[in-house]
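Dear colleague,

Thank you for sharing your sequence with our group. We've completed the structure prediction you requested, and as agreed, I am returning the results in plain text so they can be pasted directly into your records. Please verify that the sequence below matches your submission; if there's any discrepancy, let me know and we will rerun it promptly.
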Amino acid sequence: MLAVPAAAGASVDPDAALHAYARARLADGDGALGMAVASYRDALTMDPARVEIARRSYVQAIESGDAALALRSAMLLDGEGLLPRDGTLLRIGDALARKDWAGAATLTDRMAEEGNFSFLAPIVKSWIAIGQGRYAPPQVNDRDKFAALALRYSDEHAAFQALARRDVAAAVPAIRRALAVRSSDGAALRIAFAGQLAAQGAKAEALMLLPAASANFAAARADIQKNRRLKAAGAAMTPAQGYARLLARLAVDVASDPAGAPMGLRLARIATFADPAGAEPAIVAARLLTAQGYGAGGVEAARRVPAKSWYAALGQAELIEALAASGDKAGALALARAQAEAPGAEAERQVRLGRLLAEQRDFSGAAAAFRAAQAGYEPDKLPWTLLLFEGSALDQAKRWDEARGVLERAAKLAPNEPLILNYLGYAQIERRQNVDAALDLLRKASALKPQDAAITDSLGWAHYVTGDLNAAVPVLERAAAGAPGDATINEHLGDALWTAGRRYEARYAWAAASVYAEGDVAARLAAKVREGMKPEYAAP
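Please find the predicted structure tokens below.
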């Protein structure tokens, strides 16, 4: 136990602490993050010597964004030698924010010894040096087994540190290398670099980083062209801000693997603790909170991005996703429409609107949004995914003739893409159209992606529709083995087995399908299990 008193002259009420802890655990289990963290805070206040309370408080405080409770819990755990490795990162951020350079250096050495995040040490040490009033760029040892990881982030920080020294010539090549690494997630980074460059008189270089006729960059471009708000945008980055940026970037990379998502969220939250007013850490935290089911937390984080800042459009994109995830579909849709109607709206805005409209079953509206997303592309450079989105929406809007034309265009653009081949083939099989050609599409899709249960099911069902039971049954059995919880696949298998005379096995397959089915499909399956196969009960 920790030998830390609750308060001078105070006594611990174990029953009250236990009740608060139990309340916290219940709220934790129900996903009530706010109630859970408040109860953990109460429990820790009542009984600060209990390690289990500190451990739970630490995790929940980080996920909920309670920096004070997170740090308090971390210090208690550290005293017992039980601090998680990311707790060292939390303490480094706290030391940097307080300008405790010696403390930050000691903790960075500890981080390097612990191993998990050792590749960050050269970059963190370079920021500590900036805080101490000297310049020591990140020094990555090429022989280190984690050198590639460190190099992924070092150029970005070398660029910002060069800009802090007003050395634009040294910053520009580092900026180019940094943006090349983050090509798919670099909008906020472009804005940050542009602001720093513009403030130092490198206006042309700044504007080159911000694509013209792009809504996400419109505010930044307008201000730079008119020399507005450059002082704030070009303020030299502090060590704490640089550190927050490092953790936010790492959070995105770690969370790209589903297994790393919880750690990614914790890193993002620690980044917001180090730089509470920073737009980029807030944007990353909002994205990861929403992705992990914390929609309300995502809304709160996204709303930290000032509405009139250069990052506002990026923050609003995350806010749309968070609002939808938290149940405010109307709010999400209204904001998505406003973003999609802005001059220079990017394809991603139209796609976001299209997805929300599809969720509201406005499939014609969704198709129009997906079509609008295609406007900025040359015909031969059009992403096939946009055509697939449009075709699927048109299909669900019961506009099959239009959908088929769009899907055929997609297949011409990407003749070896299994998703397109499967969709176009199966949609025609469902309608008993061009059956032989559709079967060929599905054979090709299955050959390209043989382990995909949905594609295997499509091929098996196509064999069934064409009357080839000998081919259909083994293919559908393989599909069901690959996705035993899929109602459609099991129903298809049941229909094929019944037709092949294997009645007992057919009922078993239908019963398996009914476990996961809903609505009309569930009623149809129940009738099959009860009465056997009849024409009116056939799967579509």
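Summary note from our side: Residues 147-164 form the longest helix (18 residues).

Kind regards,
the structure core
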